[in-house]
Amino acid sequence: MALKNLSLEIEKRIAADSRFFDELTRLNNELIMAKRELTQKNLELEAVNRELQRCNIELENAHNILQNREKLSIVGQMAAGMAHEVKNPLTAVRGMAQLLKERCAPEHSRLADAIIEETHRACRVINDYLQLARHKPPSLELQEVKKVVQEVWEIVEPLAGAAAQKTHGSI
């Protein structure tokens, strides 16, 4: 009987140990699954974090662009005011040069033409700077070389003549 009781006790313990082992296996499997889920959630969180960082960079870039545009707008407004103040006297000088051209001797009319052309060129330069301040994309234009050289010659010739006369005296 004692042997039978011992055998029964051993069977009970084996059954209890088996249930305990089964419970440990189930809990271990739950831990493994929880760890996998946690790892997956961490990966998802890292992906969301990277996306958030990318969005922050885009937002910062957009903010910088907006600040630069605001600065350009202010510069454009200032440039427009300055251009107005400079172009008005240039227009007056051009008008006076046109009057002088009508009243002066023909040999001096080229100097009046040079003044008229230079004031016109100065106004174009001012307009070009205004366009730049308005932040429009640049465009390329074809130019006739002959025309550009002629414009340069018209600027330089009177100055060269005056310099030669100063250096060599009247010829």
From TrEMBL:
InterPro entries per record: HisK_dim/P_dom, HisK_dim/P_sf
Coiled coil residues, start to end: 21-69
Protein name listed in UniProt: histidine kinase
Natural source organism: Desulforamulus putei DSM 12395
Keyword Nucleotide-binding recorded: yes
CDD domains registered for this protein in UniProt: HisKA (cd00082)
Keyword terms: ATP-binding, Coiled coil, Kinase, Nucleotide-binding, Phosphoprotein, Transferase, Two-component regulatory system
Signal transduction histidine kinase dimerisation/phosphoacceptor domain ranges (all copies): 74-138
Catalytic activity from the UniProt record: ATP + protein L-histidine = ADP + protein N-phospho-L-histidine
E.C. number: 2.7.13.3
PANTHER family registered for this protein in UniProt: PEROXIDE STRESS-ACTIVATED HISTIDINE KINASE MAK3, SENSOR HISTIDINE KINASE
GO molecular function, one term: phosphorelay sensor kinase activity
